[in-house]
Specification:
Number of domains: 1
Radius of gyration: 16 Å
Number of helices: 6
CATH architecture: 3-Layer(aba) Sandwich
Distance between the termini: 36 Å
Largest sheet: 6 strands, parallel
């Protein structure tokens, strides 16, 4: 078992929780595509570390807020992609951060934090600088895969043979 214990998992929204696609109508950005099972994976990880989301998408922030804050009940911050290292260093000990991203500037964050995860379809520089690259793409269970990886590497591996405690909300 690894002695390093990260304290916070910071995830980019677009391209990680979503497919990275923006659906536009004549009224502008209307929708984003979020994938299945990622919230379930995060719920397994939540007892072990803080989880926070960041987005640099000003025009689609309300869409992300609806899913991340209102539906999933996680914090979400609007942070420019080129300001993420500075933003993180002002709030966390960088060595205690796991960051998951996919974008062209995420390799800068990956080089600064304790552990980094890229989606399978991430930018080439992100993939080259990531500690772990998911087999799945953003918006297609990549976050759930990353959560299982983090549990196995840093905490206690998920055991699908054991019944997990479920809240009443899961029983609906």
């Amino acid at each position: 078992m690894n002695t390093y214990k990260p304290k916070v998992f910071v995830l980019d929204v677009d391209g990680v929780m979503t497919t990275g696609q923006f659906l536009y109508t004549k009224n502008g950005k209307e929708m984003k595509i979020f994938g299945p099972d990622d919230n379930d994976g995060l719920s397994l990880l939540k007892p072990y570390m803080d989880i926070i989301f960041v987005s640099g998408d000003k025009k689609g922030f309300d869409i992300s807020k609806k899913r991340i804050v209102d539906d999933m009940e996680y914090p979400l911050e609007l942070v420019s992609t080129i300001q993420r290292v500075k933003w993180l260093s002002e709030r966390y000990i960088l060595d205690e951060v796991i960051y998951m991203g996919d974008g062209i500037f995420d390799h800068y964050v990956f080089k600064s934090v304790g552990y980094s995860i890229a989606t399978h379809d991430a930018d080439e520089n992100a993939i080259l600088n990531a500690n772990y690259v998911t087999k799945r793409t953003g918006g297609n269970r990549a976050v759930a895969e990353a959560c299982l990886h983090i549990l196995k590497k840093f905490f206690i591996p998920y055991d699908p043979g054991n019944q997990i405690k479920r809240s009443e909300e899961w029983m609906i």
